[in-house]
Amino acid sequence: MAVYAIGDVQGCADELEELLTRLDFDPAVDRLWFVGDLVNRGPRSLDTLRRVKALGDAAVVVLGNHDLHLLAIARGGADWKATDAGLHQVIEAPDREELLDWLQSRPLMHHDAKLGVSMLHAGLPPQWTLHTALACAHEVEARLRGHHVGQLFAHMYGNEPAVWHDELEGWDRLRFTINAFTRLRVCGEDDGRLMLKYKGAPQVAPRGVVPWFRVPWRRSRGERLVFGHWSALGYVDTGDVLGLDTGCVWGGQLTARRIDVRESTPVQVHSHAGGIPLQTD
Q1: Which of 65, 175, 238, 273: CA 20 to 30 A from 185?
Q2: At 183, is the pLDDT very low, low, confident or very high (cuts 50, 70, 90)?
Q3: How far, in Å, CA of 69 to CA of 237, rounded?
């Protein structure tokens, strides 16, 4: 049995199939972990959802910002953006409700105690321990599975509050949690403030702004964490932190990495789009 984590697919279904062939993936024994953002900017979001859902227990998926935005459009009345064209095929599909129900039941964070590995889409605020992160994720997941989920979608957009406090409550607490798990790339080095507008490479970030996993006082240091979301960052492996968004949808690669063993090398499939310049997500 092998466990592979896979970076942001974003509707790149052809590349996903090629990657699974390269991995010699066997759903009877192997497992796939998807870091979120199964949908949106690529050409085949609908096929990607159907393919991953059909894997059943062989696939673990956490929610990304694009996945939540799809749900908010379908069930919360969120506005369409110019970049949402790839979502129309899902909204118009005859099996949309089955697919959306499945997507809505996915977690924000997955923790495997046996492997000692956790997966999320974007990042963890430096103030959070692993225990805090899991607790905050469960709070949002309970809302996603409740009867008034439209209220959550109506309140989740926005960049404030930007700093975590244990006393945060209500929509502020839920919005902060969603932003951390699905949008975070960099933080203020001193105060851990979420700098959600920054999408570029870490080496040209403003002074005092660092990748969330490089904050020196981060309370989740030492935990093995797998994430995606940051195409301008690319592949990162610090030993404990594994970043897998290598910008397939922008002409980069779709990356998988085996995570049930410590020593492994990434497997990558180049984008079939070719020639599309790498951009920030």
Answers
A1: 273
A2: very high
A3: 28
| Residue 74 tokens, joined | 């379908």
Considering only CA atoms, which of 151, 120, 148 is closest in space to residue 134?
Answer: 120
Token readout for 14 is 């052809």
3-state secondary structure of 228: coil
CA distances from 187 to 169, 198, 212 (A): 21, 10, 5
Distance CA 58, CA 160 (A): 37
Residue 194: DSSP 8-state = B
Class of domain 3-270: alpha beta
What whole-number distance in Å separates Cα of residue 10 and Cα of residue 32?
16
Beta bridge partners of 209: 188
Sign of CA dihedral 213, 217, 220, 224: positive
HSE at residue 195, side-chain half, CA atoms within 13 A, is 21
Per domain, the residue ranges of the chain are: 3-270
Q: What does the pLDDT look like over 194-217, one tens digit per residue? A: 999 999 999 999 999 999 999 999
Residue given tokens 């953002």 in the structure block: 37
Cα separation, 148 vs 92, in Å, equals 23
Whether pTM > 0.90 for this model: the answer is yes
